[in-house]
Amino acid sequence: KAGVTQTPRYLIKTRGQQVTLSCSPISGHRSVSWYQQTPGQGLQFLFEYFSETQRNKGNFPGRFSGRQFSNSRSEMNVSTLELGDSALYLCASSPKTSGELFFGEGSRLTVL
Amino acid sequence: AQRVTQPEKLLSVFKGAPVELKCNYSYSGSPELFWYVQYSRQRLQLLLRHISRESIKGFTADLNKGETSFHLKKPFAQEEDSAMYYCAPDISNFGNEKLTFGTGTRLTIIP
């Protein structure tokens, strides 16, 4: 089975712009979670989607949003980018709402 | 309040020495507990989960409900163990967020 695929792998944006990141989960996995990884904060939970519904949301401002499509693919969007949004954004999928997560390689966002 | 604590951000151990990576959690109930590992230039992956009671790559983790700890141990460190390790309880069944990761411990094995 193909693993979790995230695109783009690297991107550079400027403050005030917006960005959309994409995640294709492992075939058959219906749960997709997003995490922000930074050296200082470690891994912080953004949100989780299951069957196109947002199931849980972390403590991030409303500039961070996401959605899931009927084929389980997910996107996350960050509007009005700030310098502090520079991070590695990880997507993870799982076949159900609990248990092991399978991670993608991440999308590294740099905000200038 | 911090709900998963990995007190050591950095840990250096000599090859062949024992390794212990600490993890404490502060949840009521009995969450399922995981250790994830991220080797250099590789994706984050599951190392082990407490319910399986397995030894993976020589690592074991014992759940201590009294101390609410889930420390990761290996009797003899190997150079390939150098990586970032995250403790993660699964509290999704408690109506909360998905896996909540600790801040991680970077383990360096000194040859």
Can you walk through the features of this model?
The complex is a heterodimer of chains A (112) and B (111). In chain A, 0% of the residues lie in helices and 54% in strands. With 112 residues, chain A is mainly beta. Chain A is globular. In chain A, 36% of the residues are buried. Chain B has no helices and 10 strands. Chain B is globular and about 40 Å long. At the A-B interface, strand 4, strand 5 and strand 6 of A face strand 5 and strand 6 of B.
Q: Topology of this structure?
A:
The complex is a heterodimer of chains A (112) and B (111).
Chain A: E1 5-7, E2 10-13, E3 19-24, E4 31-38, E5 42-50, E6 53-57, E7 64-68, E8 74-78, E9 87-94, E10 102-103, E11 107-111
Chain B: E1 4-5, E2 10-14, E3 19-21, E4 24-25, E5 32-38, E6 45-49, E7 60-64, E8 69-74, E9 83-90, E10 105-110
Parallel strand pairs in B: 2-10
Antiparallel strand pairs in B: 1-4, 3-8, 5-6, 5-9, 7-8, 9-10
Features:
heterodimer, A: about 110 residues, mainly beta, B: about 110 residues, 3-stranded antiparallel sheet, globular
Summarize this entry quickly.
By secondary structure, chain A is mainly β. Chain A contains no helices and eleven strands.
Name the largest protein-protein interface in this structure. A-B, 25 and 21 residues
Structural class of chain A: mainly beta
Output mean pLDDT of chain B. 86
Unreliable parts of chain A:
none
Number of strands of chain B: 10
Low-confidence stretches of chain B: none
Structural class of chain B: mainly beta
Mean pLDDT metric of chain A: 93
The sequence of SSEs of chain B as H and E is EEEEEEEEEE
Q: What percentage of the residues of chain A does DSSP assign to strands (E)?
A: over 45%
Rounded to an integer in angstroms, the radius of gyration calculated over CA atoms of chain A is: 13 Å
- State the order of secondary-structure elements of chain A, H for helix, E for strand: EEEEEEEEEEE
Side-by-side strand order of the widest sheet of chain B = 2-10-9-5-6
